[in-house]
Each structure stands twice: as C-alpha cells, then as structure tokens.
Amino acid sequence: LVSRRAVRAVEKHNDPVEGEGWMVRLDGVEERLAVSRRQLAAVREALMS
What confidence tens digit (pLDDT) does each residue in 18-32 have? Predict the structure, then answer.
C-alpha cells in the first residue's frame, strides 16, 4: 500500500531476466515497486479517482 500522492508514474519495465512488467515510481524513493498485471487496472483506476 502506498499513498496516491506519493505515486509519480506507472511505467512499463523490461527486465532481461524477468521479462516485461509494470512498475510504480514513488516520490522520494529510488526503488521502483512492481505491479502485478492483474492489479494494473485497479492501480490506474485508484490513481484517476
């Protein structure tokens, strides 16, 4: 769980080992957090509301 206000971007990520996926970039945090493709729509919807 993260604060909506802390989310700066939802980005597509391509890792040579793990393959393609989606990541969330947070304000003030270097590490990106992985988002399950099954949860991607819910994450985007939460950010739009």
Answer: 889 999 999 999 999
Sheet holding 33-35, edge to edge: 7-15, 19-26, 33-35
The pTM (predicted TM-score) of the whole model is 0.77
Tell me the pairing of strands 19-26 and 7-15.
antiparallel
Residue spans per domain, the chain: 4-48
DSSP letter, residue 32: P
From the list 27, 29, 47, the residue with the least C-alpha distance to 39 is 47
Where is 48: in which H helix or E strand? helix 40-48
